[in-house]
Amino acid sequence: MKNGREMSLDYVLNLEIPFTTSRQAQIAAKVLVPDPILKPQDFQVEYLSQDNILAVHFRGIDDRVLRVGVSSVIDSIKTIIETIDELD
Amino acid sequence: MVNLNTIAPKNGRSYYIALGLEGSANKLGVGVIKHPILKEQEIGDHSHDCHAEILSNIRDTYTTPPGEGFLPRDTARHHRNWCVRLIKRALKEAKINDPRLDLDVICFTKGPGMGAPLHSVVIAARTCSLLWDIPLVRVNHCVGHIEMGREITKAVNPVVLYVSGGNTQVIAYSENRYRIFGETLDIAIGNCLDRFARTLKIPNAPSPGYNIEQLANKCKNKDQLVELPYTVKGMDLSMSGILAYIDSLAKDLFKGNKKNKILFDTKTGEQKVTVEDLCYSLQENLFAMLVEITERAMAHVNTSQVLIVGGVGCNVRLQEMMAQMCKDRANGQVHATDERFCIDNGVMIAQAGLLQYRMGDVVKDLKETIVTQKFRTDEVYVSWRE
After folding, report:
1. Hey, which of B17, B114, B171, B343 would disulfide with B160, CB 3.0 to 4.6 Å?
2. Is residue A2 pLDDT above 50, yes or no?
């Protein structure tokens, strides 16, 4: 079951980050989307902006991969929020 | 025919303003630069003389304790912590009140460099671009150094020696590319100096090899060099062997290993060589290699100008040796800049990026802004030169 193994990203985390406006949430999603995932077979992220909410959906092959991936995305989100806060 | 004035500045201004963000290594730099519209730039190659005005040039360096190098993860954290504050300061110093109206373009380093620090800066660049609705331009770090050096020194078509902590290249321009004539086959010269500095437990700030240079100046034995491997390979260099060898000498020196005949007199056990002597010999040896390949490149492309850029380019001894070589050739000139522009900075990214912008090279899709650790100098199409 080679295919089955590749698809089994069973470790899941959903984050919802509220922004002040829907434009800000859209900007955050646009900034985050382009960067490639180093090991797509082990880790996947989806970004969605709904109104003023940025929803991030993580899937990982185990909890370690999930933790590392989530923390790197949160670091980026922190930079985005600080930029919006200080420079908008 | 190169025409740098095809794209009009925003908001009906008679000048362009660019913001540059640099963070490919342990230095985080933000700079703002201004180019007036010049009539002569419509007809031909005047890219070395843009009458650029530097409105702000701010840098913050991530420094590690003596004996330690900087790691990508910690450097990226430093850049994330400081990036927005530095942008704010740079804009304030440049008296830019409303970036939406007063900025034409945001330039960032696409590579080469360390992935994590590059990424942390591009996140801020993308956000600013979307917030203010200003186009982005991706800049090759090496091209940034070259264009800043040309603008400051007004050197029209020099052979460029690019020496820093991560790069060692001899570059010359031909047919819209900065072509690499020679380069290191293993580690960069700044890396070689920095790692020797780590062995000596001396700090690496402010630029690669600075503290080695200070120690070398104190050398009292300048006519008696410690013999080191001299490893020029055609137009290329190799430096890892030299580093390993001088590291072992330094370790023997610290341990007081009297069996080492180079360091100690076999009969009396007296110390013949000091740390200062080692630093001096290392510098002389490495720089002689650089001067040799630079001279050969000058002969190839038949030019008399040399431009030294990159963090190691601040080294006064390197500039002296290069000047000596140029003097021996018919009316050669050495162009070098000081630490404000030699060491990584944001202004150089803004300078190269603004030239690209004025030639119509802007990011159309944010996918193009993905940073890359490997990005060779000759991959960039230099549209702003004949």
Report:
1. B171
2. no
pLDDT at B206: 86
**Both tokens assigned to B129:** 């671009």
CATH number listed for the domain at residues A2-87: 3.30.310.50
Chain B residues in contact with A83 (beta carbon < 8 A): 83-84, 87, 123-124, 127-128, 131
The complex's ipTM works out to 0.93
Binding site, annotated residues of B for substrate: 162-166, 194, 209, 213, 315
CA distance B132 to chain A (A): 8
B324: helix, coil or strand?
A: helix
For B10-149+343-379, CATH number out of 3.30.379.10, 3.30.420.40, 3.40.50.12780, 3.40.50.150 equals 3.30.420.40
Look up the CATH number of domain B155-341.
Answer: 3.30.420.40
> Quick one: what percent of chain B has pLDDT higher than 90?
95
Q: What pLDDT does residue B64 have?
A: 92
* A33 interfacial to chain B (CB closer than 8 Å): yes
- Kindly give the pairing relationship between strand B305-309 and strand B27-36: unpaired
SS3 annotation, B42-70: HCCCCCCCCCCEEEEEEEEECCCCCCCCC
- Closest Cα of chain B to A34: distance in Å? 5
Given this model, what pLDDT does residue B91 score? 98
